[in-house]
Each structure stands twice: as structure tokens, then as C-alpha cells.
Amino acid sequence: MIQIAVFSDVHGNLPALEVVLNDIERRGIKQKFCLGDLVDFAPWGNEVIALIDRYNIPCLLGNHDERIAFDLPVTPLSKHSEEETAARLAAIDHSKKNITDEHKAFLSALPFDLKLHYKIGKKNWNIQLVHSSLTSNDTYIYESEDDQVFSEMLNVSQSDVIVMGHTHISFRKKTDGKWAINAGSVGRSREENRLASYLILTMNEQHIIPEIIQLNYPLEKVARQIENSDIPDYYASFLRNEKGAII
Asked: What SUPFAM superfamilies does the record point to (predicted)?
């Protein structure tokens, strides 16, 4: 049996990341992978990057990581309200000013995707890791998508499992005996419970078993720290679910 842990979308939330990493360690899982978006929205972007670097956790380039690493412009999204658009611009600007050059260089070197291959007995398992899709790190793919969407992703990637993040909403969906999975978000969940989420994949010669783990963390501490920083209070209210699950 082999177990791996996959997590995504930390978004500068160091307390949530520490809780997740401690839980992975407690379970004795040695292999950990991150699907990206280490920065923006909570005030520990540098500390999160440093922790991922220190533990040598393989990590993908999320869309927020890419924007900060390469100083890309922010495109307003029509689905966002005027209030959220203003908060988003301010939060990203905060990261651009506060993430160190060393950590921007770290982000700039992250790979776009990662393919894992495990051999257990006579069985070969292929695991495809992406931030959001095979061709973009900024595409929203939800559980409600037609099965064909996931079948095509699995076929193109020649994988038994594809794991993604980006939407901050976890799901597990089995299609033709294969799995499409969203690991959810460590630091900025859009699920109603706002818990820190990650994925455990357990593999043996016969099966892959995916389990979504959701954990409490000191959310109020994070919200207060946001309020004490230059990051808009909007994101403290978001964490407390005072504004609902805004996409």
C-alpha cells in the first residue's frame, strides 16, 4: 500500500497550512504534493513559501503564484461584485509589494503540472496533478460538469486519477472506473464549513481510494490578523462566512 497527500490553495494562510501538515505527519504519510496558489488574501505569503521550500514539497504554479511571480496585470472578473473586485485588487497589490524577490523567484520556477507513476505489484497507477486543468491554471471546473469533461481530461493525460484545485470546493467523481478529484482549499475554502481541506490517495494493487480530509484551524486568529494588516477586511468576513460562499 502507498499513501500520498495532496493539498492546494493555501493563499497565505500559514495557520491552516500548519494544521494540514501536522495532520499528514500524524498519519505517517511521507509523500506530499501541493497544487499551487501559495499567496494572496492572508498575510503569511512569505512564510508559506518558505515552509513549502524548507520541506521540499513539490508544488505547481497556481494562477495567483504566476501573477505575483511575473507581475502580471489583474483582469477584473464579471462574476465579482464591485466590492469584491476592489478587495481583490488591493489584496493582490499587497502581495506584489510584500512577497520578497527571493520568493518571487521561487514561484517563477514552479512547474505547470506533474505526473506521478506508481508501480504496486503488477499494477501501474498514473496520477495527474494540475492546478485547474490540463491547459490552464485559471479554469473553473466543478463537480457538476458533464462526465465527458472529466473523461476527456483522464484520456488526454493517460491517467487513472486527475487531481485539481483552484475552485476551493472539494469533490470526488468516478468516471469509467477512474477518478477526477478536487482537493479543495487549505486556506480559503469556499465550502460552507470553511474548514482546511486536503486529499489522501491510498493505492494498492487493486484499488485507488481517495479521501477528502477537512480540519478545523484557528480561523478567527487568521481573520483578526487580516484585519490588522493592509489586506482588505473583506477577506476576514469571507473566512467567517459572513458573505457566503462567493466564487
From this structure: Metallo-dependent phosphatases
Range of the domain at 144: 2-240
All residues at 6 or more sequence positions from 37 whose CB lies less than 8 Å from its CB, including other chains:
8, 9, 10, 11, 62, 63, 64, 65, 131, 165, 166
How many CA atoms within 13 Å lie on the side-chain side of 130? 21
For residue 247, tell me if it sits in a domain: no
Running along the chain, 247 residues long, what does each successive block of 10 average in pLDDT?
98 98 98 98 97 98 97 78 85 95 98 98 97 97 96 97 98 95 97 97 97 98 97 95 62
Residue 232 · residue 41 · CB < 8 Å: no
Residue 37 lies in a domain: yes
How many domains does one find in the chain?
Answer: 1
- Is 219 part of a structural domain of the chain? yes
